[in-house]
Amino acid sequence: MELDFSRQLHYFWALMPEMILCVWGMVVLLAGVSGKHKDPETASSGDPSFGGGADLGWLALVGVLLAGMANGWLYGVEEVGRSSMIALDGFRLFANWVFLLAAALAIMISFAYVYRQRLQAGEFYGLILLSTAGMMFMAGARDLIVIFLGLEVMSIAVYALTAFNRRDRKSAEAGLKYFLLGAFATGFFLYGIALVYGATGSTNIFEIGQTVSSGGASSTLLTIGIAFLTIGFGFKVSAVPFHMWTPDVYEGAPAPVTAFMSAAVKAAAFVAFLRVFMVGFDGAYDTWYPIMWWLAALTMVAANLMALVQSNVKRMLAYSSVAHAGYLLVAITASNEAGAAGLLFYLLIYTVMNMGAFAIVIGVAHQAEERLQVEDYAGFGWAQPMMGVLLTVFLLSLAGFPGTGGFMGKIYLLQAAADAQLWYLMVVLVLSTIASYWYYLRVAWFMWMKRQLADDQHDMVIIPVPMRIALIASVAIVIYMGFFPGAALDFARESVEGLASLGGAMPGLGE
After folding, report:
1. What are the angstrom distances between the C-alpha of 222 and each of 185, 237, 373?
2. Which of 104, 350, 360, 434 has a CA between 20 and 30 Å from the CA of residue 474?
3. 128-154 as b/e, with b when 16 or more CB fall inside 10 Å?
4. Where are the alpha helices (DSSP H) in 365-464?
5. CA-based nearest residue to 413, from 353, 349, 338, 354
6. Residue 507 domain flag
7. How far apart are CA 369 and CA 357, in angstroms?
8. What tens digit of pLDDT does each residue of 225-284 get?
């Protein structure tokens, strides 16, 4: 009994960040239905950064800060063994920083949007905290069942956030599409778990890895299980051909939710994706390597080609998000420690540059769902020089322009691919990156080279204080990582040391 109590106590401390977010999310929900917060219709004037539902946003930020403090405290806790359902390694803790950063940025860029759209602030911010907790469960899971539970906690909250604006038919449509297709993909994921359990006799990722490497797994069941899990993860990371929901859902969802989904949800799926395949299926690399290679190549090529013809900025960024999923799939295909470290670094920089770009899109759209065409950015750079410069930096980083964090992120992905001798995949990554320059720089060209139309209202762009703080922090990280990426990359490398439980992942098959 004493041993069981001690083990439960250890789990209690290991899950401290997640528990803080869950409890704080409920606190924000309860605060939102009390007194002056329960009726968003009363918000009609004043500063959207203070008063109304904004204090609930600040309250949610406090919860993110407390979870961050707990995550930092876990670095002083030593894990014993690898048989537990919850991992306490550097990989999980680094991923938690990415999720918490995404949650903080999503909250800060949504103050004015929630205020102007008269959304229920308590529910909105509470759901962000609860979805972030689900992501952290996924990142820390060392068992397929726990990954599924974290996936559902995250997904249900994000489904609600996608359809959150009940006055907007597009938001309701996006939420319904995401829910139906997400439920369908979840079925594949569950079947995959069942088949892997049948093949190996366990759902623990470490034990699965041991069984697969020793040759004790049923090859037929394992192969089908890997394929089904790939479909489930492929849907969440928006890999081609499982990406069809992405442009419609991203366009219809409230813009701050789109920003949060494109960064945090993708990051959580990739972290769990890599842990399962690099640790659990390391011994079956020959089986899933061709699948992952073609998945990465198709995603990079198809997404960039489709992004070239988009005139709606949200849809363009949606296809851009799919393309970045292809770049990150290269790291999983490489299946080495350089790839794992590169994936963590890329997720960090992608989160800040993508959410920074969406923040300015929200400002140009007047904290609503309008002025989303590329032509609406004509003359924006001259009308709002500071915002124009910031958006240009984010676009260049997304394109992988030298001197930005996005460029360094792709360099590290290429290094991981080179270590695994994935030469053809490296060529596809470089060529697709070059193709992406057209649609990113097209927006910058409209901002600086096109004359502002007479009826444009760029002078009415609202950038409240929290959003300004988020933008300044994001652009500082993007530029700093572009010139001084060493510290962050070393941190990422330290975080993935010993991730592969069976002596390291395979170096790749070559081409």
Report:
1. 19, 22, 46
2. 434
3. bbbbbbbbbbbbbbbbbebbbebbbbb
4. 380-383, 385-399, 405-419, 423-449
5. 338
6. no
7. 15
8. 999 999 999 999 989 888 888 888 998 889 899 999 999 999 999 999 999 999 888 888
- Give the whole-angstrom CA distance, residue 22 versus residue 129: 7
19 is in which domain, residue-wise? 13-496
What long-range pairs does 72-76 form, CB within 8 A, spacing at least 24? 73/16, 74/13, 74/14, 74/16, 74/17
d(CA 114, CA 227): 40
Contact 281, 196 (CB under 8 A): no
Residue 492 lies in a domain: yes
What amino acid is encoded at 272 in this protein?
A: A
State how far the Cα of 354 lies from the Cα of 474, in Å rounded to an integer. 9
Q: How far, in Å, CA of 129 to CA of 132, rounded? A: 5
Is 168 among the domain residues? yes
Question: Rounded to two decimals, what is the model's pTM?
Answer: 0.91
DSSP of 247-278: HHHHHHS-HHHHHHIIIIIHHHHHHHHHHIII
Distance CA 28, CA 59 (A): 7
Three-class DSSP category at 194:
helix
pLDDT reported for residue 377: 84
CB 237, CB 331: distance < 8 Å: no
User: Which tokens in the block code for residue 254?
Assistant: 């409230």
**Token pair of 107 as six digits:** 């909250």
CB count within 10 Å of CB 339 equals 28
The pLDDT value given to residue 82: 65
Residue 503 lies in a domain: no
Of 232, 338, 207, 214, which is closest to residue 284 (Cα–Cα)? 214
HSE of 431 in the Cβ direction (CA atoms, 13 Å)? 12
- Residue 500 token pair: 């592969």
In sequence order, the 6+-apart residues with CB closer than 8 A to the CB of 110 are: 57, 124, 256
Radius of gyration of the chain (CA): 22
- Can you tell me the distance from the alpha carbon of 360 to that of 105, in angstroms, rounded to the nearest whole number? 13
For 143, phi then psi, to 5°, come to: -140, 140
Total number of domains in the chain = 1
